[in-house]
Design goal:
InterPro entries: Pept_HybD-like_dom_sf (IPR023430), Peptidase_A31 (IPR000671). This is Hydrogenase 3 maturation protease. With about 150 residues, this protein is an alpha/beta fold. It has a single domain, classed as HybD-like (Rossmann fold). Helices cover about 35% and strands about 25% of the residues. It contains four helices and six strands. Strands 1, 2, 3, 4, 5 and 6 form a six-stranded mixed β-sheet that branches. The radius of gyration is 14 Å and the shape is globular. The protein starts with a strand and ends with a helix. The model has no long low-confidence stretch (mean pLDDT about 90).
């Protein structure tokens, strides 16, 4: 597998379900050599999920003072971490650093976060976050195409 798309989250925590929702949408597409899975906020699970991948794309919900529900943000290691945080205290920058120390990182990592409005208990995302799903899928497809075309994005 050269590419892995990982949706982080819990579909029973309202907008925190964005990662699994985007992963499910990508899984339905006819993409070759693309693994799609969902994961919790366990750093070891992420290291296992992206280990050996050329490109890993992660989708997660984010919350913070400047969050605008439904806004999609892109982050890669080496950039300043976003001002919003994972909705479940997962520090992807720290997980990537751990992976580097252990020799277990993908060649490229791209993280998309979607600003959440509600991460309370219960199923169903808010309308703004539901509306972000197609945009997130489109951006993931762009990343995959760039990777396949020239190994960069």
């Amino acid at each position: 597998m050269t590419v892995v798309v990982i949706g982080i989250g819990n579909e029973f925590r309202r907008d925190d379900g964005i990662g699994p929702a985007v992963a499910a949408a990508v899984r339905r597409l006819p993409l070759e050599n693309v693994g799609v899975l969902t994961a919790s906020d366990d750093p070891a699970a992420l290291l296992d999920a992206w280990d050996g991948a050329e490109l890993a794309v992660i989708v997660d919900a984010a919350a913070g003072e400047d969050a605008t529900p439904g806004r999609l943000r892109r982050w890669t290691p080496g950039q300043a971490p976003p001002s919003t945080l994972s909705s479940h205290a997962l520090d992807l920058n720290a997980v990537h650093a751990l992976g580097r120390a252990l020799g277990r990182t993908p060649l490229r990592l791209v993280v998309f976060t979607v600003d959440a409005a509600d991460v309370g208990h219960g199923p169903g995302m808010t309308p703004a976050v539901v509306a972000a799903v197609p945009h997130a899928v489109s951006e993931i497809l762009v990343e995959i195409e760039h990777h396949r075309r020239d190994g960069t994005a």
